[in-house]
């Protein structure tokens, strides 16, 4: 039963009595708590995700940081650089490189160039710490939209990292490493050091790297000389070297330059006036290589080979060496001209590289079979444009114009060849059936010339052939050839030194028989004229190049002594160990022979020939300096008397016809080997030693009448006369130890009067002790020879001597 007047209390959900009444919910209140709960959950998840992402990012960065390249110091920057070879006056002869680059310090790069490259590539370079974050975001957005790594945002620092420390591939791994390394690089190097590396390393197109070589290539000047116009142009190239090269695409280059100029103006690097003026300026590319580049090719190639042998090819082509050589380009040019003129004169005498003259000249149309290396007379069948055809027998085939320069001699093909002319030709190409596919003009002789300063031993000129483009073979330094009678001074020098002979010693020019090891038959040397002149002084025998007397002298002094003497004065090639040594049966190079003669010219001092006097690196480090002192190998007195004897070759011997009118004191010796195959003249003045060689690459007869005096000596004469123009040349004076005495020309004994007398030079202890018989008086030897009737009948000497090499002894 319920009580009246009292209300029954409500029980809440909890069942507790007296619970207060829950307030009514406001509209939307439950939704707010739900949103808050979701937000709180998302915030928590985001925080967890951020932490996870940070952890993952750290893990990724840690992973990619494990194999990062080591950051270098500025001193470690040693990129590939171009090696340059110079002549003695600093003219560039050759450039050797894998990458054409020359590193220069920042102080040699003008401010205008630095500002230009910063404006073009990284305007905030001096403000950021290696990364342009705004640029990174922009590039990332573009790349995401395009779905590729097409947009870049690299700072100068990042480009240095990419070019020097990383590979250029566009992949995530490399990009992350680039970012990490850029920050590290900014901590390791200063901004100026980074900029210096960048300017020296970037690619400018046309195989050109770095600002110094780009400046040389495009504008023909050093980087330190660049103008605002040129600097802005070069800075613009970097974005796309091939597309923006002013040498290939001038309009594109101009547009890009103008962009760089605007950037420079907007950044405050240049004034408005400078901007306006330069904006209208044309871009003038001056791609002019040094006029000396490519000159003295045989000489330069010899130097290059030497460098590679010393340092290795990789080092030579990347180390940035400055190689200063001894060649004098004016003398080199004179040497090249003299050799070409001499070889052309030879061609004219023997009818090579030109049409044959004479009514009796007929083509070899009866020929049924052709052989390589054989000469044939062919008829010019047609000439048109740059093509020539020749007819030989039943064949009409093309004529290959090689060696082109020597064949055409500055003329066009139609000027040089005419239908119906007869030319000496040889097979160039044979078909499988043995028929000729093409001919070429028959090969002619080649030659070499070497010129050496005897005092310093510097090689001032070296020509290795008619045309380097046709043949790189250096006949001056690589061709071993028999020297013929030009070897005789070494035999006479050995005998003088041993005091076995003097210049006045009389020896009989008569038949003599010698045994040659390995030969069954005895050997008897002959003279060039196949005559014997009887007793004559050694000086006269050398001047007239008498073979029999040279061999007689070798027999007296001994083969071993002659070889030892030759070795000491500079001969290093193998020498024959028999009596043909006296007549030049051994082979040597023109360089070797000339340097040996230079030992006489220097008064008995030997030194190896010098081609390079200094090698240095770009940082100034000197790697090599040529020695400037030689060593005495023979007495000064021996060298002087030998020089005096060689002077007679010029005044009364085999060189008189060519050099007799030359007022400059010079000496020398002709030489001709069997055949005659090889022609020589080696000689010197007090200022210059020179050797000339002429012969075929595949040894063959030079032709009737050819030899040292006719084939080689004229080349020597032309060059040496040119080389001595305007120079004062003083004849050498006798050193101490050399005595003078008046002798009788006929007997070589002391003269009793003035008739038939001459002054002769002697080494101490070799002056004749006896006097010549008075006029009309017979010496004891003459009386005995007259009584027994076995005196040698002397032949009168010819008006002009020939060369005295053996003609038929087989050596």
Strand content: 5-15%
The CATH homologous superfamily of the domain at 447-723 is called: DD-peptidase/beta-lactamase superfamily
Question: Which percent bin holds the helix content?
Answer: 25-40%
Write down the Rg.
43 Å
Q: Major sheet, described briefly? A: 5 strands, mixed
Tally of DSSP β-strands? 23
Question: Low-confidence runs (pLDDT<50, min 5 residues)?
Answer: 1-19, 60-66, 783-811
First-last Cα distance: 161 Å
Summarize the structure in short:
With 811 residues, this protein is an alpha+beta fold. The protein is 36% helix and 15% strand. The chain contains 24 helices and 23 strands.
SSE diagram, text form:
Layout lengths: L28 H37 L17 E4 L5 E5 L14 H11 L11 H14 L9 H9 L7 H17 L2 H11 L8 H10 L8 H10 L12 H17 L5 H8 L17 H15 L1 H4 L4 E5 L3 H22 L25 E9 L2 E6 L2 E4 L5 H5 L4 H4 L5 E9 L5 E6 L4 E7 L6 E5 L17 E2 L5 H10 L8 E4 L24 E4 H6 L3 H11 L1 H11 L17 E2 L1 H12 L3 E2 L5 E6 L4 E4 L5 E2 L3 H17 L3 H4 L7 E6 L5 E7 L4 E7 L12 H16 L14 E7 L12 E7 L16 H9 L23
Parallel strand pairs: 1-3
Antiparallel strand pairs: 1-2, 3-16, 4-5, 4-7, 5-6, 7-8, 9-10, 9-21, 11-14, 12-13, 15-18, 16-17, 19-20, 20-21, 22-23
Helix pairs in contact: 2-8, 2-9, 4-5, 4-6, 8-9, 9-10, 13-23, 16-18, 16-19, 16-21
């Amino acid at each position: 039963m319920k009580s009246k007047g009292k209300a029954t209390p409500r029980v809440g959900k909890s069942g507790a009595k007296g619970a207060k009444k829950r307030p009514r919910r406001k509209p939307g209140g439950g939704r707010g708590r739900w949103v808050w709960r979701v937000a709180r959950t998302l915030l928590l998840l985001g925080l967890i995700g951020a932490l996870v992402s940070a952890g993952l990012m750290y893990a990724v960065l840690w992973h990619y940081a494990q194999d990062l390249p080591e950051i270098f110091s500025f001193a470690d920057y040693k990129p590939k650089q171009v090696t340059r070879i110079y002549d003695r006056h600093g003219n560039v002869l050759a450039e050797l490189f894998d990458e054409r680059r020359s590193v220069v310090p920042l102080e040699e790069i003008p401010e205008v160039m630095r500002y230009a490259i910063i404006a073009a590539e990284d305007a905030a370079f001096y403000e950021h710490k290696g990364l342009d974050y705004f640029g990174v975001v922009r590039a990332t957005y573009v790349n995401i939209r395009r779905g590729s790594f097409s947009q870049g945002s690299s700072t100068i620092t990042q480009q240095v990292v990419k070019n020097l420390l990383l590979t250029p591939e566009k992949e995530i791994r490399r990009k992350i490493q680039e970012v990490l390394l850029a920050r590290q690089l900014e901590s390791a190097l200063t901004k100026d050091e980074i900029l210096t590396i960048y300017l020296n390393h970037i690619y400018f197109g046309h195989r050109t790297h770095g600002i110094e070589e780009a400046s040389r290539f495009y504008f023909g000047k050093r980087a330190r000389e660049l103008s605002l116009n040129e600097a802005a142009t070069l800075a613009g190239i970097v974005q796309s070297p091939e597309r923006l090269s002013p040498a290939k695409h001038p309009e594109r280059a101009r547009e890009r330059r103008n962009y760089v100029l605007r950037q420079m103006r907007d950044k405050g690097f240049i004034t408005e006036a400078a901007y306006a003026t330069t904006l209208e300026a044309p871009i003038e590319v001056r791609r002019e290589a040094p006029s000396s580049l490519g000159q003295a090719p045989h000489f330069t190639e010899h130097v290059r080979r030497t460098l590679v042998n010393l340092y290795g090819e990789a080092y030579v082509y990347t180390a940035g060496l400055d190689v200063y050589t001894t060649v004098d380009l004016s003398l080199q040019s004179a040497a090249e001209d003299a050799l070409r003129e001499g070889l052309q004169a030879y061609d004219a005498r023997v009818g090579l590289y030109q049409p044959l003259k004479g009514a009796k000249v007929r083509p070899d149309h009866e020929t049924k079979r052709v052989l390589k290396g054989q000469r044939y007379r062919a008829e010019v069948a047609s000439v048109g444009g740059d093509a020539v055809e020749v007819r030989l027998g039943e064949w009409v085939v093309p004529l290959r114009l090689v060696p082109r320069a020597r064949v055409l001699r500055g003329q066009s093909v139609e000027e040089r060849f005419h239908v119906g002319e007869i030319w000496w030709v040889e097979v160039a190409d044979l078909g499988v059936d043995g028929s000729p596919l093409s001919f070429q003009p028959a090969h002619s002789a080649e030659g070499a010339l070497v010129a050496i300063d005897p005092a310093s031993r510097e090689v001032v000129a070296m020509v290795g052939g008619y045309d380097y483009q046709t043949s790189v073979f250096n006949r001056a330094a690589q061709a071993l050839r028999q020297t013929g009678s030009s070897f005789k001074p070494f035999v006479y020098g050995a005998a003088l030194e041993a005091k076995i002979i003097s210049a006045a010693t009389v020896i009989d020019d008569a038949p003599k028989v010698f045994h040659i090891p390995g030969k069954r038959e005895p050997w008897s040397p002959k003279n060039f004229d196949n005559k014997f002149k009887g007793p004559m002084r050694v000086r006269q025998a050398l001047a007239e190049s008498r073979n029999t007397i040279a061999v007689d002298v070798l027999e007296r002094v001994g083969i071993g002594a002659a070889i030892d003497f030759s070795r000491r004065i500079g001969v290093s090639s193998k020498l024959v160990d028999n009596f043909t040594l006296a007549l030049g049966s051994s082979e040597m190079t023109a360089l070797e022979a000339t340097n040996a003669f230079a030992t006489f010219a220097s008064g008995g001092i030997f030194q190896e020939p010098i081609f390079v006097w200094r090698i240095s690196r770009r940082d100034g480090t000197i790697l090599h300096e040529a020695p400037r002192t030689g060593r005495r190998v023979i007495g000064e007195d021996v060298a002087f008397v030998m020089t005096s004897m060689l002077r007679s070759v010029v005044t009364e011997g085999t060189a008189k016809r060519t050099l007799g009118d030359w007022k400059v004191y010079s000496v020398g010796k002709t030489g001709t080997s069997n055949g005659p195959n090889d022609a020589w003249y080696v000689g010197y003045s007090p200022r210059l030693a020179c050797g000339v060689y002429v012969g075929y690459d595949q040894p063959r007869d030079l032709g009737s009448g050819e030899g040292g005096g006719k084939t080689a000596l004229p080349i020597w004469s032309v060059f040496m006369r040119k080389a001595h123009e305007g120079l004062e040349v003083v004849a050498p004076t006798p050193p101490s130890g050399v005595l003078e005495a008046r002798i009788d020309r006929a007997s070589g004994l002391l003269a009793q009067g003035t008739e038939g007398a001459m002054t002769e030079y002697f080494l101490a202890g070799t002056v004749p002790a006896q006097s010549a018989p008075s006029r009309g008086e017979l010496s004891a030897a003459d009386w005995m020879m007259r009584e027994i009737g076995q005196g040698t009948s002397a032949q009168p000497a010819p008006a002009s001597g020939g060369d005295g090499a053996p003609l038929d002894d087989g050596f």
